[in-house]
Fold:
Amino acid sequence: MFRPKIKIPWKKSSLCPCGSGKTLNRCCAGIDGTPRSKPFNLNKTERKTGLNRSGCYLAGQDNCGAKLSLEHALSHNIIDQLGDLAIRGFPGVDGETDVVVPKGSAGYKVLCNLHNADLSPLDAQAGRVFAELGAAIFPIRHPANKERENWVYIDGPRLESFSLKALAAYVAAKVITRSGKKVELNVDWTKLKRAILAGDLDDGGGMYICASPAPNEVDGCQFIPISNLDGQLVGIHCVMRGFSFRTIFDPTHAGAGTVPPNATFRPSVHQLYGIGGSAFIYLAWRRRANLRQYSSGRVITTPTGSSSSVPFDLLAGSPKEEIRTKLLQQPTEMPQSFAPIDVGHFEADPPPILGRSKR
Ligand SMILES: [Zn+2]
Ligand SMILES: [Zn+2]
Structure:
């Protein structure tokens, strides 16, 4: 299939989209000029406080702070952009009911103060991405703005780590439910912590982007844990402003059906489109960008469609489908059979505007 090469909007002399303030050329550009993700390591092994604070999920290296602090799974940078939060899957409440909580209380004491601060760069990027997605999606939901074409820059590995950090908070706080009942999930904490702190994932782990988003058009943020039928936690499904992605951190236990067959593994560009046009998301990875590898997803517009925050709609959608993945194959037999990596498979929706000449 012919795929036009996409033109990204940043030149070597532009300001780097990562937000450093340097030019792209002096910052994140690879040899071909496309932005790459730089390695990171938030694991402060050199710090020795001699403390392992009980209740901190990153304890164990004698580098905890003295007290537990409130960790906002959803990131306070995102929460600040919203009103009160509606949370579905709250312990003791059936799986269909949203519980509205004041934003000040939407956190869990699962990290010590020092480890909480260590992870704050992930929150900072998530907050920026959330704001930019909001601005980019608004015009595509409104036909009057047809000419606008926005780009959003995402550092892929950092967004993966952020989504897994949110997952870790839910697991550590023991608040994951299925049909309203609390569930205990098995989790490989070694893998999960390695992924959060340094973006270090096993082969087959990482972000899978769906051609069609989950059946919702949320203006907010939705996180749904993904487990296999044996109760092994393997990843998290996130929807941020209509951008839907699943991050798998434990690919060896994921079974077939964990991600939709039309998902694309770490594409370079994801196009969101709606009645008002398109928004493009550039995803920087450590490898060279493949600007012919892209995915697309439609943003479904509701009659009341608006990109301002609608707290009660935050967790609309159908968590049951995602939380209960089908295990069609024994994971030991087909460890990475759960998602296609071949870019020829994902295109379930018509590719709308890509490749058009510049407007
Ligand atoms: Zn940069
Ligand atoms: Zn700690």
Observations:
- The pocket of zinc ion (ligand 2) is lined by residues 53, 56, 58-59, 64, 111-112, 114-115 (CB under 6 Å).
- The two ends are 24 Å apart (CA to CA).
